[in-house]
Fold this protein.
Amino acid sequence: MTELISDHGGHESRAFVPTHRAARYAKQLTNHFGHRVDAEWHEPVGTVRFGEGGVAVLTAEEGGLRMVATAPGSEGLATVERVVGDHLLKFATQDELRVEWVRTP
């Protein structure tokens, strides 16, 4: 797989998950992660700062949840993608969501 580097010197990927519960999920994820790492909720955006420089920005939009993951390396990025995506699916018991991350240049 070709490694992609974002303009801030790290790796980046994006996902948009269609749901009418975007604000609920963004806030729930931000609050959940905030018990273990630095996380901030400023409606409609949650920012989660994981160890090793990984960051997830969760934005509730009309029609869905936009997620942007960044990390200094591709392994760290894969970890942020997995952790955020898995937690979203665990919280979304009322919906059948699918998370597809797309790496960006």
Residues 1-8 have pLDDT under 50 and may be disordered.
